[in-house]
Model the fold of this input.
Amino acid sequence: LNRKYFDESDLGNLLADVCVDMIDADIGMLNPGGIRKDFPQGDIEVADILDTNPFVDPIAVVVASGAQIREALEQSATHLRGLMQISAALQVVYDSSKPERERIISIKYNGEEIADTDSFNICVPGIIAKGGDHYDVFTEMDIVSEHDPLGDMTIAYFRKHGAVPTPKAGRQVDLAASN
Done:
């Protein structure tokens, strides 16, 4: 599974899904800079997981409104710090040819357009919950719980599920790239 910094990636999708599965949050969002190495083909070793996720900060769960999610995704769509990786429940359409902070076209949660007033539990790396990588909007959210670091969580996920398939792509679509 490969990582990508400025695009949706198989590995980013998997790791965002890991957070949702292991914490039972609504949405997982991971900064691409936190994913440090691809997973090799074949069997995944503990060392591969820890090389991919070497950070020891906890995964935090924050409560976010639909408006705050939109603001975080607008920040992501600037590509200042790469494209935020998201879990399977979100479907985002954006247009990178539009001006910054006006790029998000659509955000759906389980196929339904989210409203600004909707509320979701989102798991994010602790550094992002504290405004890291210029995601200041997360500092406005309440941290409701903290959990194991992503590396430990991923090890537990593989032990729980065994063989893990490549996650389905297409969670984030850039209309400018498809033209």
